[in-house]
Amino acid sequence: MRKRLEDLLLAAGLLTQEQLDRALYSTDDKAPQSRTVDDVPVSSIVHSLISQAVRERASDIHIEPEANDVRVRFRIDGMLREVVSFSKQLHAAIVSRIKIISDLDIAEKRLPQDGRFKIQEQDRGIDFRISTIPTILGEKVVMRILDQANVILDTKKLGFSEENLLRFRQLCGQAYGMLLITGPTSAGKTTTLYSALAELNSSDKNIVTIEDPVEVLLGGINQVQVNQKAGLTFAKGLRSILRQDPNIIMVGEIRDTETADIAIRAAMTGHLVLSTLHTNDAPSALLRLMDMGIAPFLVASSVLGAVAQRLVRLICPHCRQGYIPEPDSQERSFLGLKPAAQVYLYRGTGCSCCGYTGYKGRLAIHEVMPVTAAIREFVMKRSNRDSLAALARAAGAGSMREDGIGKVLQGFTTVDEVLRVAYSE
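Now predict its structure.
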C-alpha cells in the first residue's frame, strides 16, 4: 500500500523523488515550517492522501502521531489499513494544512476542533468532515469522507432478503407511524433511510429531513442540517418541520427524550416518521424509547416496526475460492450443519484488488420486525427484550444471525464476518 501512495505522488508530478525521500524518511532536525516552504509541498501530500483514499473507496482517513513518526490509516470496508508513515517533522505542517482548508484555528492545539470542506475529485464534489483531538504525542486528525457516488439509493441493492425486503417496503408504505433503523455507528443506517426516501419520493408528497450532517443531497426532498452553534437542534428543527405541512419526516437520529417525544407525537398525528437509534437488535429499539421516558402506550401505538442491521464484508470476487469445511469446524457449528452434511463455502485468498484481505465491498444483514398486535400488548406490559424477540420470531421475523447464515450459504460472505459483526453469544 505504501508503494502505491509513493507512485501516486510521483506520477502526479507533485513531488520529485528527492522531495519524496525527504518527506517520508528524513530524520533531520529542520523545522517543519521551513521544510514545507523550501523543500516539501505539504499541500500536495495532503491532496495525494485524499485522492488515494477516494480511489480506495475509504470512509475515513486517520492521521496519528506516534513517538517517532506519523501513521496514516484508511478505513476501507469498515476495517483500518495502514497506508504510510511520514517523518514526525512533517506532522505540524500536515495538521496545519488540513486545518486551513477546514477553516479551523491553526493556533489552537489544546482543544478538539471540528470542521469541514469540499473538493472536486474525479469530476465530482466530495465532502469531508474533519475532527482533531490533542493526544500526548500531538494532534490526531480524522477525516470522514462523504462521497455521494458510494451511496446506494436502491432498496433492492441493500442486501435485503426477499422476505425482509417485502416487510421493509410494507412498513415504509404506511400512511403514518414510526419506522426505526437500529444498529451501531457505521452500520449503514443512514443509507437505508436514504434508499427508503428515494423510493417514497414523489411529486404528491412533502418529505422533510433533519440531519447532522446532510450526507447525500436528494432531489425533490427538503433537507435541513442541524446547526448547534445557531441553536438549531434535532428537537427545534423537528418542531419547525411539523409546521411545514409534511407527509414524511426523516430524523437523522433520536438522541434525547425531547426529540423522541416530538417524533412519537408526529407519528401519531398522521405523519410517517423515519429515524435511527443505537441498539443491538430490533426488539431493543422499543425498550430504548421507553428507557428514554416515552410512555409504553405511546410506543405501542406509534411504532410500526424496527429494522436492525450490520454491514459484513463481501468476499473478493477476484480471489474467491470454494472449500468444504472440516467435519468439526466452527463453520459447521455456527451454520447448524451435521458433520456429514454436504456444504460448499467460499472465502477470499487475498489479492492486489482487495489489498490482500480477501474482502472487497460490503453488504448488510438485517432483522426486520413489524410491530404486531401481540408485540404491542407486551410493550404495554413493559415486557423484556427476550419476550419481544420470541414474539417477533413467532410472527415470522428472522434474526440477523439467520440472515447472515443465508448470505454465507449463498457465497456472499464468510462465517468469520458474521461472527465478527453480529453474533456475541
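The CA atoms of residues 367 and 404 lie 10 Å apart.
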